[in-house]
Design goal:
CATH topology of the largest domain: Beta-Lactamase
Strand order of the largest sheet: 2-1-5-4-3
Distance between the termini: 15 Å
Structural class: alpha+beta
Largest sheet: 5 strands, antiparallel
Length: 252
């Protein structure tokens, strides 16, 4: 049953990706993201470049369905400059549940108060992932619930895939990058190496498993990373899954 559920989730995300290709405005994209995050049990989302929200440029993404009163307070008082979620997620390669913040930072009194204010506005449980690209500010994708239901590994994976697709399409709409939406071709050996990277294997460990040299494995992985134009190997894995090179089970 779990496998059937995973296939259904991946199909839903695939349909979202196809629909997102047809979005020509950020409002259209925002509506699509809102619909799919609700399908996956979340109430709100935010996709934004990690920049000064007051002085952001026209090329900075900011899509969100967060409660208006909370968003106004965050911007007016610049709470985002010391946001504990932003501070903690910067120390992770692939994101975190908000109840894990204390594992990555020692939040200040102000940061603890910020979390409490967010809960007062209904954002009780959430997940945030970093999106890191070369030569541009980092971005963040967050999903939030209005209840305290635990966010499972499968939920977090779905959020990561949705966030990756939405970010890529948002950048294309802004005109920063024209994407072909054709899967990036990878060799069988590159796919083998990326699958082992997702399992947490080092280049040396992957080399031992595959019967290759460490340098060869490193070049396979780094070559694939350069093709996708991403800075982190976790983002490489996400895109390999999205393009069908890896089965979603590799990330569960």
């Amino acid at each position: 049953m779990q496998g059937t559920r995973d296939i259904g989730r991946l199909a839903t995300i695939g349909a979202f990706e196809q629909s997102s290709k047809l979005a020509t405005t950020l409002d259209q994209l925002s509506n699509l993201v809102d619909a799919i995050v609700r399908d996956f049990g979340f109430r709100w989302f935010a996709l934004l470049h990690n920049v000064d929200l007051v002085q952001r440029s026209k090329n900075a993404l900011m899509l969100t369905t967060y409660p208006v009163k909370w968003l106004d307070e965050v911007i007016e008082t610049r709470l985002y400059l010391d946001d504990p979620v932003h501070a903690a997620v910067g120390k992770t390669p692939s994101g975190l549940n908000w109840n894990q913040i204390g594992e990555f930072i020692d939040p200040s009194t102000r940061q603890i108060a910020t979390l409490a204010k967010g809960r007062d506005h209904g954002l009780r449980q959430g997940f945030t992932m970093p999106i890191r690209m070369a030569d541009e500010p980092d971005a963040l994708f967050s999903v939030a619930r209005a209840n305290d239901d635990e966010i499972s590994g499968e939920d977090a994976l779905a959020a990561r895939l949705i966030g990756t697709i939405a970010f890529d399409r948002g950048r294309a709409i802004l005109g920063e990058e024209r994407l072909s939406y054709e899967p990036v071709p990878l060799s069988p050996r590159q796919i083998d190496c990326i699958a082992l990277v997702e399992q947490g294997k080092s280049d040396w460990e992957a080399a031992q498993i595959l019967g290759l040299s460490r340098d060869t494995v490193h070049e396979y992985v780094e070559g694939a990373r350069r093709r996708y134009g991403v800075r982190r190997r976790t983002q490489l894995v996400l895109r390999a899954v999205r393009d069908g090179h890896l089965n979603i089970d590799a990330m569960l």
